[in-house]
Write a structure and sequence with these properties.
heterodimer; A: alpha/beta; 8-stranded mixed β-sheet; 12 helices; B: alpha/beta; 4-stranded antiparallel β-sheet; 12 strands; 40% helix
Chain lengths: 358, 322
C-alpha cells in the first residue's frame, strides 16, 4: 500500500482456506499488504478475524487442513506461497522469520533444560559447536534480562516464572538473528506488570538487532505502545490500515470506531458502554457486500450488496468502507473516538501518568 | 456528598475481617495465600478486587462461597458468620444467596447438558419452582433478560459463542435471585467487542435489582469504569482500598502506582511517553513498625506504618494541589 520504501515482505491477494469436516472455511479473504523494513506493524482483530492465520502463512505453519488457495507472499525475491517442501521452509522458518507465541508454558519443552533449548537452535541453524553455542546462549539469556544466566542455563522451564519463560522464548526466536519477528499475542497470558516489561524488551531488542516486528494483539493499549503502523482485521480481511496516530486519532472505518468506543477506559461512569451489536459472521458462508454491514450502525444499502474497495485517506492511511465514497453521506465518528485523547488525558495526571510523584 | 457520608448511609452486606487462608501443601510447607484481609462490601455497590495472578484474589472469593477453608478471621454476610462450621440449613442459605460468575464460560458450563438444564440446575437443587410450567417460565425469563431466545434452551454450550456462553453463565446466576454476585474475571476470556455487551448487561441487573457485585479482575482499566470501590491485593495482602476515582487520582501504595502505570492506555501519545515503573518489594524501605491497613482519607485505606503515612501525606498534599 505504500511505495518506494524498503519493503521486506509483500503479500498479494492472499486467500487461505480450511477444510473443516466437509465444509470449507475461508479464513483469509483476499489480503494485500506490504511490511516495511525495521518498522513495528500491529495487526489488531478479534479472535477468529484471521490475524494469526494470516501471519502463519509467512512461516508455513498453517494447520494440516489449511492451505494458501490463492495469492503471493514475496520475501527476499521468493514467493513463500509456492513453497511445498518442508526442507525449504526450514531455511525461512525460525531462521529468517521467527515467531513468539502467546503461551510460554506450551512453547517450551518441559523435559529439556532452558540452555539446551536455546543452544539447539544455534547449533542447528548456525552450525556452531556445542561450546560456542553455550556461550552464545548465555549471552542471549543475559540480553533478554535473565539474571545469573550461567546458573540458570541448566534449569528446566518449570523453574522459571511465566514472564521469564517468555523471555526465554524470545531469546530462542532471536538466536538466529531473524529479519522478521512475529509476536503472536506475546503478553496475553502474562500479568500487566510483566507485560509492560516484555513489551519494553521486544522494543529494545528490535532497535538493537534491527528486525521488523509484526505484533498480533487484541489489546489496543499494547498497540498504542508498540506500533508504528496498524492494520485492523475483520472477518478475514484488513479493513483499515494506517500509521498508529491515524488509526487512534483519525480512524475512518465504523468497525475501528466500534472497537475504540467500546473500550472500558473510555466509558463514562453511569453511562452505558458502547457495544458493537451482534457477533462476527460465519466464514463458512460466502459473504456478500461488507462483512461488517449487519453490525454496522452506519450501514447503507450498498454495504449489503457490494464489497467496498480500499479508499485512500492519506498516503499511509486506507480504509475499506463505503462511507468514504464521495457519494456517501457525511458521518461523524462517535464522540468517544473524537475525544479519545482528551478523555485519556482527563483520566490521568500530567503526561499520562497516574498520581505523579515529585 | 462526601465519601464518608455515603459510606455511613450504606448498609453493610459483606464484611471480611482478619481473613487468612492457608494451604497446607505438606506438613512442613504451609502457604499463606491470604494474609489478614479486611474489607467491607456495601449493599448495591460494585466492589472490585484487583491483583495479579497468584495474589490471592480468587482465593478470597472461593473462601466467601465456602469452597476454600479459612484458617483465621471472619466472613460476615448479612450479619451472619458464614465461614467455618455451619449447619446444613445455613450452608444452603449461603449457596443460594451468593452466586458466582466464572471467567471461562466454556469450562464452567456442563458440556453434556442443554442450556435449559444449565440454567435451571439451581432451581432443581433448591426446589425453587412450583411445577414444570413455573420452571419453564422462570428459565424463559432468565434467558430473555440476558438477551437469549427460548429456542436456545435445547442447545448445548458448544453451539454458542463465548459471549453467548457468558450470558448463559449470568442467567444461571441470576435465576437464583441472589443478593450478592461474585464475578471472577467475567470478561477476560471474551473479545473486545463482546466485553462491552456483558458489562452493560451486568450493570443493567445492578440497577434493576439493587444487586451487589464483587468483581475480580487483573485489568484496572475495566475496573475504573465498572466499580464503585477498588481494593488492590498483592501477595495475599490488601495494600490499598479506595473509591475508584480516588484510587486513579491518588494512588498511594507503590504497588498500586506501578500497577496503574503498567496498564497500557489506548492512546499512542500517552503510551509512547510513558515511563515503566517496576515494583520491587526488596528495594523498598520497609523499616519502622509493622504496617497495617489504615485510613488516610475518609474511605481511602492504605497498608502502611506511621513512617510511610507521613510520606503518603506529602504525596497526597502534592497531588491535591494540582
Amino acid at each position: 500500500m505504500s511505495e518506494n520504501r524498503n519493503i521486506i515482505l509483500s503479500v498479494r491477494n492472499l486467500e487461505v482456506k480450511f477444510k473443516v469436516r466437509d465444509r470449507v472455511l475461508t479464513a483469509i479473504r483476499n489480503i494485500s499488504m506490504d511490511f516495511e523494513e525495521g518498522k513495528v506493524v500491529a495487526i489488531v482483530g478479534e479472535s477468529g478475524s484471521g490475524k494469526s492465520v494470516f501471519t502463519k502463512t509467512f512461516t508455513g505453519m498453517l494447520e494440516i487442513n489449511g492451505e494458501v488457495s490463492q495469492g503471493e507472499i514475496w520475501f527476499e525475491g521468493q514467493d513463500l506461497a509456492k513453497i511445498t517442501n518442508p526442507a525449504e521452509w526450514e531455511k525461512i522458518r525460525g531462521k529468517k522469520i521467527a515467531t513468539v507465541f502467546q503461551d510460554p508454558m506450551t512453547s517450551l519443552n518441559p523435559v529439556k533444560t532452558i540452555g539446551d533449548q536455546i543452544s539447539e537452535v544455534i547449533i542447528k541453524h548456525q552450525g556452531k559447536s556445542k561450546g560456542e553455542a553455550k556461550q552464545m546462549a548465555i549471552d542471549l539469556m543475559a540480553k533478554v534480562g535473565i539474571h545469573n544466566p550461567e546458573l540458570r542455563f541448566d534449569e528446566y522451564p518449570f523453574m522459571y516464572s511465566g514472564g521469564m519463560r517468555q523471555r526465554i522464548v524470545i531469546a530462542i526466536a532471536l538466536a538466529c538473528r531473524p529479519k522478521i519477528l512475529i509476536c503472536d499475542e506475546p503478553t496475553t497470558a502474562l500479568d500487566v506488570t510483566i507485560q509492560a516489561q516484555i513489551i519494553r524488551l521486544i522494543k529494545d531488542l528490535a532497535q538493537e538487532y534491527g528486525f521488523t516486528t509484526i505484533y498480533i494483539t487484541h489489546d489496543l493499549g499494547v498497540v498504542a505502545n508498540v506500533a508504528d503502523t496498524v492494520a485492523v482485521m475483520y472477518a478475514g480481511q484488513i479493513i483499515e490500515y494506517g500509521s498508529v496516530d491515524e488509526i487512534f486519532y483519525d480512524s475512518r472505518h465504523p468497525y475501528t470506531w466500534g472497537l475504540m468506543s467500546s473500550l472500558p477506559q473510555l466509558g463514562e461512569k453511569g453511562e452505558e458502554l458502547f457495544a458493537i451489536r451482534g457477533t462476527p459472521p460465519s466464514l463458512f458462508e460466502e459473504i456478500k457486500g461488507d462483512a461488517f454491514a449487519p453490525r454496522n450502525n452506519y450501514a447503507m444499502k450498498i454495504d449489503y450488496e457490494e464489497e467496498p474497495p480500499f479508499f485512500k485517506v492519506s498516503d499511509t492511511h486506507y480504509a475499506k468502507t463505503w462511507l468514504l465514497d464521495p457519494r456517501a453521506p457525511h458521518v461523524e465518528p462517535p464522540a468517544a473516538v473524537q475525544e479519545l485523547h482528551a478523555r485519556m488525558l482527563a483520566l490521568t495526571a500530567k503526561g499520562g501518568t497516574y498520581g505523579e510523584r515529585e | 456528598m462526601s465519601v464518608n457520608e455515603t459510606m455511613n448511609e450504606k448498609e453493610e452486606l459483606l464484611s471480611v475481617e482478619h481473613l487468612e487462608v492457608t494451604f497446607n501443601n505438606s506438613r512442613k510447607h504451609r502457604f499463606r495465600a491470604v494474609k489478614d484481609a479486611n474489607f467491607k462490601i456495601y449493599k448495591g455497590e460494585t466492589f472490585a478486587l484487583v491483583g495479579e495472578s497468584g495474589s490471592g484474589k480468587t482465593t478470597i472469593a472461593r473462601a466467601i462461597i465456602r469452597l476454600n477453608d479459612t484458617s483465621a478471621g471472619d466472613i460476615i454476610f448479612k450479619g451472619k458468620k458464614i465461614n467455618g462450621k455451619l449447619s446444613a440449613e445455613d450452608k444452603k442459605w449461603v449457596q443460594r444467596n451468593i452466586q458466582m460468575i466464572f471467567q471461562d464460560p466454556a469450562a464452567s458450563l456442563n458440556e453434556r447438558a442443554t442450556i435449559d438444564y444449565c440454567v435451571s440446575e439451581g432451581l432443581y437443587n433448591f426446589n425453587l419452582f412450583k411445577d414444570e410450567a413455573d420452571r419453564e417460565a422462570k428459565v424463559d425469563r432468565a434467558l430473555n433478560e440476558v438477551g437469549l431466545l427460548p429456542e436456545h434452551k435445547s442447545r448445548y454450550p458448544h453451539e454458542f459463542s463465548g459471549g453467548q456462553r457468558q450470558r448463559v453463565g449470568i442467567a444461571r446466576a441470576m435465576i437464583m435471585e441472589p443478593e450478592f454476585i461474585i464475578a471472577d474475571e467475567p470478561i477476560s476470556a471474551l473479545d473486545v467487542s463482546i466485553r462491552a455487551q456483558v458489562l452493560n448487561l451486568m450493570n443493567k441487573f445492578k440497577e434493576e435489582r439493587g444487586l451487589t457485585y464483587m468483581f475480580i479482575a487483573h485489568d484496572l482499566s475495566v475496573v475504573r469504569y465498572f466499580a464503585d470501590r477498588i481494593a488492590v491485593i498483592h501477595n495475599g495482602r490488601i495494600v490499598e482500598v479506595a473509591p475508584s476515582d480516588v484510587l486513579f487520582k491518588y494512588p498511594l501504595h507503590p504497588y498500586t502506582h506501578s500497577l496503574l502505570q503498567a496498564v497500557p492506555m489506548p492512546d499512542p501519545q500517552i503510551e509512547k511517553a510513558k515511563e515503566l515503573v517496576i515494583y520491587d518489594e526488596s528495594k523498598r524501605d520497609l523499616s519502622g513498625p509493622k504496617p497495617l491497613l489504615q485510613e488516610i482519607r475518609p474511605g481511602h485505606f492504605v497498608f502502611m506504618n506511621d513512617r510511610e503515612r507521613a510520606e503518603y501525606e506529602k504525596v497526597l498534599e502534592h497531588l491535591e494541589q494540582q
